[in-house]
Amino acid sequence: MRLKKGDVITFENFPGRVTRLSALRKDSVTAELDFNTVEGATHYVIRRESKDENSQTPSVREFITNQTHFIDRSIDSSHAYTYSVKAMLGIVQHQFQIAASIDAFSELMDDRDKAHPVRLCLWKLG
Predict the structure, then answer these.
(1) In b/e form, how buried is each residue of 51-68, taking b as 16+ CB within 10 angstroms?
(2) What are the Cα distances from residue 39, in Å, to 15, 21, 36, 47, 97?
(3) What is the pLDDT of residue 117?
(4) Which residues lie across from 61 on neighbouring strands?
Protein backbone atom coordinates (compact mmCIF):
# COMPACT_ATOMS: atom_id res chain seq x y z
CA MET A 1 0.00 0.00 0.00
CA ARG A 2 1.42 3.38 -1.00
CA LEU A 3 0.30 6.42 0.90
CA LYS A 4 0.64 10.05 0.03
CA LYS A 5 0.13 13.22 1.99
CA GLY A 6 -3.53 13.77 2.75
CA ASP A 7 -4.53 10.08 2.60
CA VAL A 8 -6.84 8.98 5.39
CA ILE A 9 -6.37 5.57 6.97
CA THR A 10 -9.19 3.97 8.94
CA PHE A 11 -8.55 1.11 11.34
CA GLU A 12 -11.58 -1.06 11.84
CA ASN A 13 -10.01 -3.28 14.48
CA PHE A 14 -7.69 -1.50 16.86
CA PRO A 15 -6.70 -3.21 20.08
CA GLY A 16 -7.65 -1.72 23.41
CA ARG A 17 -5.18 -0.93 26.14
CA VAL A 18 -3.72 -2.83 29.01
CA THR A 19 -5.26 -1.09 32.01
CA ARG A 20 -4.28 -3.42 34.86
CA LEU A 21 -0.73 -4.67 35.35
CA SER A 22 0.86 -6.21 38.42
CA ALA A 23 4.43 -7.42 38.88
CA LEU A 24 5.58 -9.49 41.83
CA ARG A 25 9.09 -10.73 42.57
CA LYS A 26 8.65 -14.39 43.51
CA ASP A 27 12.29 -15.03 44.45
CA SER A 28 15.77 -13.81 43.55
CA VAL A 29 15.52 -14.82 39.87
CA THR A 30 11.78 -14.90 39.09
CA ALA A 31 9.11 -12.25 38.56
CA GLU A 32 5.42 -12.90 37.88
CA LEU A 33 3.27 -10.53 35.82
CA ASP A 34 -0.49 -10.43 35.41
CA PHE A 35 -2.47 -8.06 33.23
CA ASN A 36 -5.95 -7.72 31.77
CA THR A 37 -7.05 -9.33 28.52
CA VAL A 38 -7.47 -6.84 25.69
CA GLU A 39 -10.29 -7.65 23.27
CA GLY A 40 -9.01 -8.17 19.75
CA ALA A 41 -5.33 -8.41 20.71
CA THR A 42 -3.40 -11.07 18.83
CA HIS A 43 -0.47 -10.89 21.26
CA TYR A 44 1.26 -8.70 23.81
CA VAL A 45 4.72 -7.18 23.99
CA ILE A 46 6.20 -7.00 27.49
CA ARG A 47 9.01 -4.50 27.94
CA ARG A 48 11.41 -5.00 30.84
CA GLU A 49 13.71 -2.18 31.84
CA SER A 50 16.41 -2.35 34.49
CA LYS A 51 19.24 -0.19 35.63
CA ASP A 52 21.88 -1.22 38.11
CA GLU A 53 23.49 1.23 40.50
CA ASN A 54 26.59 1.61 38.28
CA SER A 55 24.84 2.21 34.96
CA GLN A 56 23.40 5.40 33.52
CA THR A 57 21.82 3.60 30.57
CA PRO A 58 18.95 1.20 31.26
CA SER A 59 19.00 -2.34 29.95
CA VAL A 60 15.86 -3.13 27.93
CA ARG A 61 14.49 -6.52 26.92
CA GLU A 62 11.18 -7.34 25.22
CA PHE A 63 9.15 -10.54 25.40
CA ILE A 64 6.25 -11.56 23.14
CA THR A 65 3.37 -13.60 24.53
CA ASN A 66 -0.27 -14.36 23.84
CA GLN A 67 -1.01 -14.97 27.53
CA THR A 68 -1.95 -12.44 30.23
CA HIS A 69 0.10 -14.28 32.88
CA PHE A 70 3.85 -14.17 32.33
CA ILE A 71 6.75 -15.51 34.37
CA ASP A 72 10.15 -13.90 33.84
CA ARG A 73 12.83 -16.37 34.94
CA SER A 74 15.78 -14.29 33.78
CA ILE A 75 16.11 -11.49 36.31
CA ASP A 76 19.13 -10.58 38.39
CA SER A 77 18.70 -10.50 42.16
CA SER A 78 20.60 -7.20 42.51
CA HIS A 79 18.52 -5.25 39.98
CA ALA A 80 15.17 -3.52 40.19
CA TYR A 81 12.90 -3.83 37.14
CA THR A 82 10.06 -1.90 35.54
CA TYR A 83 7.66 -3.75 33.26
CA SER A 84 5.20 -2.34 30.77
CA VAL A 85 2.85 -4.13 28.38
CA LYS A 86 1.27 -3.18 25.07
CA ALA A 87 -1.47 -5.00 23.20
CA MET A 88 -0.94 -5.82 19.54
CA LEU A 89 -3.33 -6.54 16.68
CA GLY A 90 -1.00 -7.95 14.06
CA ILE A 91 1.42 -5.07 13.52
CA VAL A 92 -0.95 -2.41 14.90
CA GLN A 93 0.01 -1.44 18.43
CA HIS A 94 -0.71 0.86 21.31
CA GLN A 95 2.10 2.64 23.05
CA PHE A 96 3.16 1.41 26.46
CA GLN A 97 0.73 3.10 28.85
CA ILE A 98 0.98 1.38 32.20
CA ALA A 99 3.95 0.13 34.20
CA ALA A 100 4.66 -1.97 37.29
CA SER A 101 7.95 -2.29 39.15
CA ILE A 102 9.74 -4.74 41.40
CA ASP A 103 12.65 -3.96 43.73
CA ALA A 104 15.98 -5.73 43.97
CA PHE A 105 15.82 -8.99 45.91
CA SER A 106 16.47 -8.80 49.63
CA GLU A 107 16.44 -11.78 51.94
CA LEU A 108 15.18 -11.21 55.44
CA MET A 109 17.99 -11.67 57.87
CA ASP A 110 17.82 -12.79 61.48
CA ASP A 111 20.72 -10.91 63.02
CA ARG A 112 20.51 -12.68 66.38
CA ASP A 113 23.64 -14.64 67.15
CA LYS A 114 22.65 -18.32 67.27
CA ALA A 115 25.71 -19.08 69.42
CA HIS A 116 24.42 -16.80 72.20
CA PRO A 117 20.67 -17.26 72.48
CA VAL A 118 18.67 -14.70 74.36
CA ARG A 119 17.56 -15.96 77.75
CA LEU A 120 14.40 -14.73 79.32
CA CYS A 121 14.60 -14.40 83.09
CA LEU A 122 11.55 -13.91 85.23
CA TRP A 123 12.00 -12.36 88.65
CA LYS A 124 9.49 -12.84 91.38
CA LEU A 125 9.13 -9.68 93.39
CA GLY A 126 7.89 -9.52 96.95
Answers:
(1) eeeeeeeeeeeeeeeeeb
(2) 7, 16, 10, 20, 16
(3) 45
(4) 48
